[in-house]
Every structure is written in C-alpha cells, then in structure tokens.
Amino acid sequence: FAGRKEVDAALLDELEELLITADLGVDTTLHLIQALKEKLKRRELGEVARLKAALKEEMVALAKGPPPKEITSRPWVVLLVGVNGVGKTTTIAKLAHQDRQQGLTPLLIAADTFRAAAVEQLEIWGQRVGAPVIKQKSGADPAAVVFDGLAAALARGVDKIYIDTAGRLHTKVNLMEELKKIHRTAAKKLPGAPHEILLILDATTGQNALNQARLFQEAVGVTGIILTKLDGTAKGGMALAVAHETGIPLRYIGVGESLEDLRPFDAEAFAAAILG
Amino acid sequence: RLSDKLAAVFKKLKGRGILTEVQVDEALREVRLALLEADVNYKVTKAFIERIRQRAVGEEVLRSLTPAQQVIKIVHEELTQLLGGESPRLDLSGRPPVALMLVGLQGSGKTTTCAKLARRLKSQGRQPYLVPADVQRPAAIEQLKRLGADCGVEVYPTKAGQNPVDIAAAAMEAAYTAGYDTVILDTAGRLHIDGALMAELKAIREKVAPKEILLVADAMTGQDAVQVGESFHDLLKLTGVILTKMEGDARGGAALSMREVTGRPIKFLGVGEKLDALEPFHPDRLASRILG
Ligand SMILES: Nc1nc2c(ncn2[C@@H]2O[C@H](COP(=O)(O)OP(=O)(O)OP(=O)(O)O)[C@@H](O)[C@H]2O)c(=O)[nH]1
Ligand SMILES: Nc1nc2c(ncn2[C@@H]2O[C@H](COP(=O)(O)OP(=O)(O)OP(=O)(O)O)[C@@H](O)[C@H]2O)c(=O)[nH]1
Ligand SMILES: [Mg+2]
Ligand SMILES: [Mg+2]
Questions:
Q1: Which of A23, A75, A117, A235 could lock B142 by a disulfide, CB 3.0 to 4.6 Å apart?
Q2: What are the residues whose beta carbons fall under 8 Å from the beta carbon of B123, sequence distance 6 or more?
Q3: Residues 6+ apart with CB under 8 A from B163
Q4: Which of B106, B244, B271 to probe by mutation at the A interface, max A CB count within 10 Å?
Q5: Residue A150 has what pLDDT?
Q6: What count of Cα atoms within 13 Å lies in the side-chain half-sphere of residue B66?
Q7: Is the pLDDT of residue B163 over 70?
Q8: Which H helix or E strand runs over B240?
Q9: What is the distance between the alpha carbons of residues A99 and A132, in angstroms, rounded to a whole number?
Q10: What is the pLDDT of residues A40-94, one digit of tens each?
C-alpha cells in the first residue's frame, strides 16, 4: 500500500499480489477482494487507509475462532499431530516449558517409535525443560506406548501430559489409522483423553495446509492449530482458509527453535504482518 | 480440473467461428489460477503466462478443433521444458573424496536425504561417508548415525560442541585417509534470513569446495519458495535442488519457482520416509502434477 493515494484497479491488483504471495490462496484472496469491491461500490471506502483497515477487519474475522478449551481435568492430555518435519517435537518442548513457568508439572510421552532418534530428541528436550519423558524401545507400537505412558503418568500425578507422535502425511491411510488407534487407546485408558488435539502446521506450507487440516480433522478431530516457523519470511496466510473452513481455533505461533519461541495466536498482529 | 475449466471456456465459443484473443485471455486466466492453486509463485506465474501467451494466441490454438486440449498441451510442454532441460546427475568428478553438501530450511528432510543419497551411491558401487555437521538440533548426530547404520554407511564421529566448519574439514581428511570417495555433509536447518548461519554455510563451502550444494526443499512449500531459493542460491551458488515429501498430495508448484529463481536442476525427489525412497526427477511428471 505504500505510497498509493487512490483506490483503483491497480491498487486492487497490488492487493491481490500481496495476499496471494502471503499464501492466502486464490479462493480466500478472491473472496477478500470481492468483499472490498462491494464496499467500494457502496462508497464505503474512499481512501487507501480505510481500505487497508477494512481488509484487516475481514482477515481478522476469518482468523477468529472459538476461545481455547478451559482446562477442566487433571491430568490434561494433549496429543500433537501433523505431517513430517513441521515442528511437533520442538513445540511440545515449548508448551511444556510454558507449563513449568506457570508452576504446572508436564510429562512427555515419546510415541514416535518410528523415526531415527525421535525418542532421544524428545528426551533431550525433556531434560532441558525439566519434564519426565516416558518411552519404550524403538519399533514399539505407538498405541501401546501411549497406553503404558498414560498409566505411568496417572500413577505419578502430573498436571499435563503431552503425546509426541511421528510425522505422517495425511494421505497415508495406514498411518492415519495408526493415529486413530492412538486416539482410541488414550480414550480407553483415560476417558476424555486426549483433551486437546493440536495440529502443527508449518508456515512455509502453501495450499496443502488445507488438505492436511481437513484430513487430520476427519481422522481424530483437531481442537487447535499451532503455526510454526513464522520467524522466517513465509506469512502463513493459508491459516486463514484453514481456520475459516474447519472452524479450528488458531492457538499459538512458533517463532524460533528455542523454548521461549512460542506466542499465543494474535489475529490482529497476524493480519498486520501480512498487510505490512 | 484445469482441462474441464478450459473446455468450459472454449465451449462458450463453439459455433462462433475462429477464436479471439479475448477468449484465449480467459483460457490463460484459468491456467494462471491453476498454477497459483498449485503453489507456483505469483511473479513466476505471471512471467510464465506471458511466455506462453505468444503460443496461445498463435495458429496452433486459434485454428485447432480442440483448443482446450491445445492450450493444455502448450502449457504442459512449456512447464516440462522449464522444469527440465539440464542434466540432473550428480557431479562426482575430480579427485576423491568428492563432497556433497545438503542445505535448507528446518525440517525439510536434509538428514534423511543425506542417508538416502548415501545408500544410493553405495548401491552404485561408490564409497560414501556421512558427516553430521548439525551440532545444534537435539540428537541430530545420533539421527544420522542411526540412519548410517540402517544403510551400512560409515558416519564421521562428530562430537557435540564442535564447529561445523572444522567438522567438515576434519571429515574430509578422515575420508581421504580411509579411502572414501564421496563425503555427504548434513547441515543444520536454518533460515535464509539468518545472516550468521548463512555465513557459516559459506564458510563450509570455502573450506571443502563441495562438488554439489543441494537445496533440500519440502514439496509443500508455498509462495516463500522464491525467497528461499534466491537467498540460498545467491549466497552459495547451488548446484541443484532435491524436493522431499513428494509422495504426498502437494501439487509441487514450489519446484517451478525454485527452478526459475536458481536456474538449477531438480536432481531428485524424496518420496517416502524409508531410505530407499529417493527417485530421479522427471520434469514431465511434475508438469502434469502441477497442472492438476
Ligand atoms: N525457525 C524455526 N524452526 C522451528 C520452529 N519449530 C520447529 N523448528 C525446527 O524445525 C525442525 C523440525 O522440528 P521437529 O520438532 O523435529 O519437527 P517434527 O514435526 O517433530 O518432525 P518429525 O517428528 O520428524 O515429523 C527442527 O530443526 C526445529 O528446530 C519454529 O517455530 N521456527
Ligand atoms: N513423507 C516423507 N517424509 C520425509 C521425506 N524425507 C524426509 N521425511 C521426513 O521429514 C521429517 C524431517 O526430516 P529430517 O531429515 O529430520 O529433516 P531435516 O531437514 O534434517 O531437519 P532439520 O535438521 O531439523 O532442519 C522426518 O520425519 C523425515 O522422516 C519424504 O520424502 N517423505
Ligand atoms: Mg518429531
Ligand atoms: Mg537434520
């Protein structure tokens, strides 16, 4: 918008480029531009500043979701899911760190029994955070790790339990079935669990984020989304379409590789970062 | 689907005689939308559409009995040509050991791909040596050690706290002494906007002069592919790109963006989590996938 004085076709073109380049996607971008055009027709937006404010409002409206679930039981079990490499393991560490800072006791269950050194990675994070990590030997059935892990956690009496799962592409039916089994097993061991199912999305991802959200939602139900790697140059605009279409609340953003690099999702700040 | 959308565009014009530029414009608009939905970068898409506009308003479409198919054919040909064109083979020339360096954003699949390449080279009769130069990510060294063990390839014994540049140099020495002919360097994931870490990659490059500097990128990358490709290429002079997680349903438009901004060939595709899941790149197949 910099330096533009008039609201004209050229400005709308520029806006289209801005939004598409922020990964909002064609449908969402056209929808937003159309909403602006309607307002323009009704002479509701004379100058650029008002146009920008109106656009920001529309984007915030897309991003807004229901408030986070109230923590109503102890332990509160959180299952983290998502495709490969998006930041699940690191995000668990950040969430557990946040708990510790609030005086809560988190415990981590290493249910990624497939990937090389996945358990070791979570163990190192557990040591740094000060959270015990429950694991079994590599190749174990993840559902069994969750079952036994929950049993052990219940015996210890902790506030929060985080279950780290292996990355999996949403298109892999057998892996999605495995995830459903993990979900059922947790519920069997502890009615109501998992209380939260957090989908981790990588901000550098394009339109595939929608497919990911749809299929994970369909498989196990998702109660919240965490958008990672927003410390890069990617704007994560696909989160708007995801939030709008699935109704899943955007809970946090990851902004780095350290324990403190987690912030609550702020729709205003998110839209402002995209609009510049 | 693009072919249906184009058929609809040209159906409206049936019986009106020859096509006009306006109608071809509408067809090009559909192509543009398809590319954007496939995650091809906005500017890259724009340039591509301009490039094919010449052919699209030419005789081959205007006189065609099946203009929709003709447009698809043109787009597919142009995409294939853009995506391919150069040798996708690894440059393993020169006095051994030859170094291959894998770089990229966090979580893109570098460590796994290092092991996949090692396994492939071993099956081709070479003597690869894996080098963990990521001392930042928890258990990264252990991860590569495990993968090395899985494919029977030796791994340099990196110790935590060592400097990646020193690790690379020492590993080349060790490889030379032990008679390995190919050193595969795994580096820590990093942001292209992290000046210090990008400088570290440059320092490694100066130290060991790799024959290949491969950008490992996630197939689901969106518009940011341009920034990432440009930054890594400007600083390091990449020799190629490897796209991972291609067995999923990401359309893979990022591949076109990266090819455009780096001018470098896509050499391999990662198509799974197991170490045998590495395929040579086929431009025509990716062209079809991007078009949807
Ligand atoms: N820059 C940045 N890097 C991140 C962020 N979150 C995670 N990472 C990095 O992304 C990489 C992958 O993180 P992991 O936690 O291993 O991801 P994962 O989803 O558990 O991966 P898999 O278990 O293999 O599927 C690591 O290098 C992390 O340090 C973030 O918010 N910003
Ligand atoms: N589905 C699929 N997963 C892959 C592929 N390549 C790698 N992965 C997975 O992606 C995740 C990240 O892989 P890594 O090799 O740890 O990625 P990285 O780039 O080394 O990560 P950092 O070192 O943290 O930057 C792991 O879960 C891998 O198993 C692939 O081709 N397909
Ligand atoms: Mg993990
Ligand atoms: Mg790695």
A1: A117
A2: none
A3: B135
A4: B106
A5: 97
A6: 7
A7: yes
A8: strand B240-244
A9: 13
A10: 888 777 677 788 899 999 999 999 888 888 999 999 999 999 999 999 999 999 9
Structural contact between residues B257 and B41, judged by C-beta atoms closer than 8 angstroms? yes
Residue of A nearest to B228 (CA): A233
Gap between the Cα atoms of A139 and A154, Å rounded = 24
What is the largest distance, in Å, between two alpha-carbon atoms of chain A? 66
Spell out which residues of chain B touch residue A22, defining contact as CB-CB under 8 Å.
Answer: 223
DSSP 8-state code for residue B221: B
Q: Exposed, middle or buried, B15 (CB in 10 Å: 0-12/13-18/19+)?
A: exposed
Give the C-alpha separation, A223 to B29, whole Å: 38
Which of B137, B222, B248 lies closest to A169 in CB terms? Answer: B248
Query: In this structure, how many other beta carbons lie within 10 angstroms of the beta carbon of residue B282?
Result: 15
B191/A238 CB distance under 8 A: no
CB–CB contact A86 B107 (8 Å) = yes
How many angstroms separate the Cα of B114 from the Cα of each of B110, B147, B153, B183, B216? Answer: 6, 9, 11, 10, 10
Instruction: Tally the C-alpha atoms within 13 A of residue B86's C-alpha that lie toward its C-beta.
Output: 17
Q: Which residues pair with A64 in a beta bridge?
A: none
Q: CB atoms < 10 A from the CB of B160, how many? A: 9
- With H, G, I as helix, E, B as strand and everything else as coil, classify residue A253: strand
